[in-house]
Amino acid sequence: MRTLTALIGGAIIGAGAALLLAPQSGQATRSLIKDKTSKCTRDTAEFAEKKSRHLRNKMKGYAHKAQDLVEKAQETIPQAQSVVGRASSALNKARTSMDSMQHMSDPTPVG
What we know:
Structural class: mainly alpha
Number of helices: 2
Number of strands: 0
Helix content: over 70%
Mean pLDDT: 86
Distance between the termini: 95 Å
Strand content: under 5%
Low-confidence stretches: none
Shape: rod-shaped
Radius of gyration: 39 Å
């Protein structure tokens, strides 16, 4: 961060020194500053527009992917619930079967 600050500060100082020491007239220097400022403003606006468009398109893509995932989840959840229900039913049947087998094998007291 310090390097960036030093670089920007050096650029500003260099630009100021160049303006003060320029062999051009004041009118030519002002015109040059105006042209450079206009170009910089246009370039910055164009860059911001391009990045904005790029990010907007990326967000649309992510929104589409998210919607696809939601739809898949909505399809998968009922299937998973059905599988869990069948597994629970099978488990209950197995427990019932084991319980009845255990009762059959228990020795009955003779009395």
